[in-house]
Design a protein that fits this description.
By secondary structure, the protein is of the alpha/beta class. The chain folds into two domains: about 5-55; about 75-275, Rossmann fold. It is about 35% helix and about 20% strand. The protein has eight helices and 13 strands. The chain has helices at about 55-80, 110-120, 135-150, 175-190, 210-215, 230-240, 250-255, 280-290, and strands at about 5-10, 20-25, 25-30, 40, 45-50, 95-100, 105, 125-130, 150-155, 200, 220, 265, 275. The strands form three sheets. A six-stranded mixed β-sheet has the order 8-7-9-10-11-12, sandwiched between helices. A five-stranded antiparallel β-sheet has the order 4-3-2-1-5, with no helix packed on it. Strands 6-13 form a two-stranded antiparallel ribbon. The longest helix has 27 residues, at about 55-80. The protein is globular and about 65 Å long. Mean pLDDT is about 85; it is low at about 85-90. This is Sporulation-specific protease YabG. It holds the Pfam family Peptidase_U57. InterPro entries: Peptidase_U57 (IPR008764). Keywords: Hydrolase, Protease. One of its GO terms (molecular function) is peptidase activity.
Length: about 290
């Protein structure tokens, strides 16, 4: 067995697909492939996986992910329809231009960051993505927040409850919740208004209450469960495209995440989407028609 191999834990019935991140003596450090879970396991409890698609849990996770992407795309189409133009894809026909909320996404997993950026690009969400270890996120945010001036910050990666820890109210019982809390503190010190800077924070089993208390608008995980890799992205997209005069529909957003109410929670927050006029592409198109 080598670093980078795909594995499952035999004692857990192979419920989650992991990639081996590192070895320490007879233990392996594992990062979830579909869920934002950081775990460790005795090497003898691991079984390598050659074809992940044969695993029922992996297939189900990918089905849920595709369904979430489909919902996000449909919501964008409904939004453009409500505004009186046929398609957001042909912006030359719009009488105005769009200003979705700008996202700064910090991720402790390079593969998840790549997937997240693909979703942002697919849905035309302006986003900057940075991969760094969870412990480095507070310092990275100190540097990047004044540089990018985001409307939405996503602070995520991997987390999990430590073995043998029974007191779930203690941050020391979690693998990365303290790092996420410190990162939220940095972001909230930068912008105190929760409507001016929307913060989405946490990963699998993270300390939900501590993240909200630190200043996050949305966080995981109320039920200390695993959350899907794209759940923070889904929340950020909804914040980006909810008009600034409207409150983000918390119940609807959470119901449409892959993890649901046990995985993600939040507080009442205004959206970050605006429109402006005129659409210069539409003006140029009209001028070209008049010239002809």
């Amino acid at each position: 067995m080598n670093q980078g191999d795909l594995v499952i834990r035999k004692s857990y019935g192979g419920d989650v697909l992991f990639r081996v991140a590192a070895f320490a003596a007879d233990q392996a450090v594992l990062r979830g492939m579909d869920y934002r879970l950081l775990a460790d396991s005795p090497v003898h409890d691991l079984q390598t996986v050659r074809n992940p698609d044969e695993l029922g849990g992996t297939r189900q996770a990918r089905i849920h992910a595709n369904e979430s992407l489909r919902r996000m795309s449909e919501e964008r189409k409904r939004q453009t329809g409500h505004m009186g133009f046929p398609s957001a894809l042909d912006d030359r026909r719009q009488p105005f231009f769009e200003l979705p909320g700008k996202v700064l996404h910090l991720d402790g997993d390079a593969n998840y960051l790549k997937k997240s950026m693909q979703v942002y690009n697919q849905l035309n969400v302006p986003a900057e993505g940075v991969h760094c270890h969870e412990s480095q996120m507070p310092q990275v945010l100190l540097r990047l927040l004044p540089q990018y001036h985001p409307d939405i910050v996503v602070i995520t990666g991997h987390d999990g409850v430590l073995k043998q820890r029974k007191d779930l109210q203690q941050l020391s019982s979690y693998k990365n919740s303290l790092n996420f809390v410190q990162s939220v503190n940095v972001a909230r010190d930068y912008e105190r208004n929760r409507d001016s800077l929307v913060i989405v924070a946490g990963a699998c089993q993270s300390h939900f209450e501590a993240l909200l208390e630190a200043g996050a608008n949305f966080a995981s995980s109320p039920g200390r469960i695993m959350i899907h890799a794209l759940d923070p992205v889904y929340v950020a997209v909804r914040a980006s495209f909810t008009p600034f005069r409207d409150t983000i529909n918390i119940t609807d957003v959470i119901a449409h995440t892959i993890s649901g109410r046990q995985g993600v929670g939040g507080i009442e927050t205004m959206g970050r989407y605006r429109i402006g006029v005129p659409n210069l592409k539409a003006v140029d198109s009209e001028q070209n028609v008049n010239i002809v």
